[in-house]
Write a structure and sequence with these properties.
This protein is mainly beta. It folds into two domains: 71 residues; 121 residues, Ribbon (Seminal Fluid Protein  PDC-109 (Domain B)).
């Protein structure tokens, strides 16, 4: 039997190993892994210890039982995460954004490429961003991904967005799930507008001269 110790000290024991799959004796709460995978220890029945850094968990089912695989992230993936964190930190510090309409398609794809790729069996949380094909999608409902819930198909789970440093072109929302919120910025008719309300589905210049819903940046 195996046990795993997470970075916060949580111990998951009574684990059977089937190939690369750890199978718990009783089902575990998948949320215990959130934020606790920077460093983990895997200990076998002979007390041999394997230390892993910057891990991710992929859930699956083996012979009808809950199971998971521990994957150590590649150096390139870790570097992309660090770059995303740096971009977000700079954004918070400077509040400077890049207009989508002044970027080439290639530049936009380069920004999107720093985000993690969507794949099956990921535990995703609200507001996390994932790359799928050539688009970037924000999670609007936490879930475990599966093949028939792809971001570009299942609009109840994902919104298509632009990278956080990019001011997107305005797109007509189809409902509350993709509406604009207070302080969201958009480009409409070559002008940057800032939403004044939550759940904003109006056209930026559709309320002139009152401008009850949008302000010019």
């Amino acid at each position: 039997m195996y046990k795993i110790i997470l970075v916060n000290g949580t111990i998951i024991d009574n684990l059977e190993l089937n190939g690369n799959n750890f199978i718990p004796k009783t089902p575990i709460d998948i949320n215990i892994f959130n934020g606790n995978l920077d460093k983990i220890s895997i200990i076998d029945s002979e007390e041999n210890i394997e230390e892993l850094n910057n891990c991710s968990i992929v859930f699956a089912e083996v012979v009808g039982k809950q199971s998971f695989i521990v994957v150590e992230k590649a150096k390139e993936e870790v570097e992309k995460e660090e770059l995303r964190n740096l971009i977000n930190a700079n954004l918070k510090a400077t509040r400077k954004l890049v207009r989508q309409d002044v970027m080439t398609a290639e530049e936009l794809l380069e920004l999107i490429d720093i985000y993690p790729k969507w794949e099956e069996s990921l535990i995703v949380k609200v507001d996390e961003l994932y790359k799928h094909e050539d688009g970037l999608y924000k999670v609007i409902q936490g879930h475990t991904t599966q093949s028939d819930w792809k971001p570009d198909v299942n609009l109840s789970l994902f919104n298509k967005v632009q990278p956080t440093v990019v001011i997107p072109n305005w797109i007509q929302p189809v409902g509350a799930h993709d509406s604009y919120q207070i302080d969201n910025q958009v480009i409409y008719n070559e002008v940057v507008w800032i939403s004044k309300i939550n759940a904003n589905t109006t056209v930026p210049d559709g309320d002139t001269p009152y401008n009850r819903y949008w302000d010019l940046a």
